[in-house]
Specification:
Layout: H1 35-47, H2 51-54, E1 66-74, E2 80-86, E3 92-96, E4 101-108, E5 116-121, E6 131-136, E7 138-140, E8 149-158, E9 161-168
Parallel strand pairs: 1-8
Antiparallel strand pairs: 1-4, 1-7, 2-3, 2-5, 5-6, 8-9
Length: 169
């Protein structure tokens, strides 16, 4: 014969429901802190630790810089003098002999707009105010001889006489 069921125990064979804060109850958060709360706090302290702890994460590869190139040719019968610079660089002076070309190259961060080269030149001998043009560049592979975007200096007739213009090819 089975042993008798105590009076405080239900007939289902399971222990009675315990009320929060009762004796021996370690699953209640209203009383003292439980083990799982302490473990959670320790894990959060390690995850949100100082910056040196984050340096242990694997480093992701950095994308190589992209290259931009502009080629300026002289299609006139005289030498052309101009100044050019990329972005905030210091302008540099270039002299291009007739029939020759000069190539301007720079690097820029990937996933950013292509840089523009700013060219300053005089359109004629007697013109005091120079022309300033901002020329879009061409994205190139630095290991090739690709000229990038090509611009040409030409002589053009105007009411004021012969003037030099810089146009895209």
């Amino acid at each position: 014969m089975p042993p008798p069921i105590p009076a405080d125990r239900p007939r289902t064979g399971r222990p009675p429901l315990q009320v929060c804060g009762g004796p021996g109850n370690v699953n209640c958060t209203s009383g003292r802190p439980t083990v799982w709360v302490a473990c959670t706090l320790v894990v959060l302290a390690f995850v949100a630790g100082p910056a040196p702890a984050q340096s242990l994460r694997p480093a992701y590869p950095v994308a190589p810089p992209a290259y931009a190139r502009v080629t300026i040719t002289n299609q006139t019968d005289m030498a052309i003098v101009f100044h050019a610079h990329w972005g905030a660089e210091e302008p540099r002076r270039y002299v291009v002999e007739p029939g020759r070309a000069v190539t301007l190259e720079t690097t820029f961060a990937p996933l950013t707009p292509k840089p523009e080269v700013t060219v300053t030149y005089r359109i004629g001998r007697w013109y005091r105010r120079p022309d300033v043009l901002s020329l879009p560049s061409g994205h190139v592979d630095p290991n090739t001889d690709n000229p990038g975007r090509v611009y040409d200096f030409y002589e053009q007739r105007s009411n004021a006489g012969e003037v030099v213009t810089l146009t895209a090819r």
